[in-house]
Amino acid sequence: MRKILYLITLITFTIYARAQETASKVASFKMPRHSVQFADSAFFEKAKTQFKSPLVAKIRIKQFKVNLEVRGVFVVVCDMINHASNETLADYKNDALWMVQMDRSLTLDFIKIDTLNNKRFIVYKMHTRDAVYLHFRSEEEDKKSIGGLLQYKITDDRRAQRIAKKLMSSFKFK
């Protein structure tokens, strides 16, 4: 199960590992209230205390990445730039459905396309017995987008969804 979850994250984020720019060239966003930013190693150690498989801490890509913990909700926000992509949000929706079919330990709670501040996002939530995963990704603009992954306990669901919505609402693309 851990390998499949790790594979899902890699599939979600690796597509964007080509020709990366810094966040200042893609988008800015407001840090959530009460957030604490971590370096990769400290983030992994902190997440390991909460989850059997701290998926958020395993994202190892060479691009802008912010690791945050907001009162028990672990958040990774990444710039995504793919100069060869022509995929739409509907394509990413199909990818998410495929991932759930491949891993029977995952249960898909919802998948939808939201519009916040005139920007469209694919948002999907899935869970295992140990954790909940909330993914989001903006629609590409000049082959650039921003995405994130939240991992948390089911008891933090309302808080995590508010954090994701505030993050997505605060993105300012350049």
Kindly describe this structure.
The chain is of the alpha+beta class. The protein contains 5 helices and 9 strands, in the order ααββαββαββββαβ. A 7-stranded antiparallel beta sheet has the order 2-3-4-8-7-6-5, with helices on both faces. It has a two-stranded antiparallel ribbon with strand order 1-9. The protein is globular.
What is shown here, in short?
With 174 residues, this protein is α+β, with helices and mostly antiparallel strands. The chain has helices spanning 2-14, 23-26, 40-48, 89-102, 157-170, and strands at 27-28, 35-38, 65-70, 73-81, 107-116, 119-127, 132-138, 144-152, 172-173.
Give me the secondary-structure topology.
Elements: H1 2-14, H2 23-26, E1 27-28, E2 35-38, H3 40-48, E3 65-70, E4 73-81, H4 89-102, E5 107-116, E6 119-127, E7 132-138, E8 144-152, H5 157-170, E9 172-173
Antiparallel strand pairs: 1-9, 2-3, 3-4, 4-8, 5-6, 6-7, 7-8
Summary keywords:
33% strand; 5 helices; Protein Transport Mog1p, Chain A; 174 residues; 7-stranded antiparallel β-sheet; 31% helix; alpha+beta; two-stranded antiparallel sheet; globular; single chain
Strand arrangement in the largest pleated sheet = 2-3-4-8-7-6-5
CATH class: Alpha Beta
CATH topology: Protein Transport Mog1p, Chain A
Mean pLDDT: 77
Number of domains: 1
Residues in helices, as a percent range: 25-40%
Main β-sheet: number of strands, strand sense, barrel status?
A: 7 strands, antiparallel
Rg of Cα set: 15 Å
For CATH, the homologous superfamily is named as Mog1/PsbP, alpha/beta/alpha sandwich
Strand content: 25-35%
Task: Return the structural class.
Answer: alpha+beta
Poorly predicted parts: 5-24
In whole angstroms, the N-to-C terminal distance is 38 Å
> What's the architecture in CATH terms?
3-Layer(aba) Sandwich
The count of strands amounts to: 9
Element-level helix/strand string: HHEEHEEHEEEEHE
Query: Based on CA inertia axes, which overall geometry fits?
Result: globular
Count of individual helical segments: 5
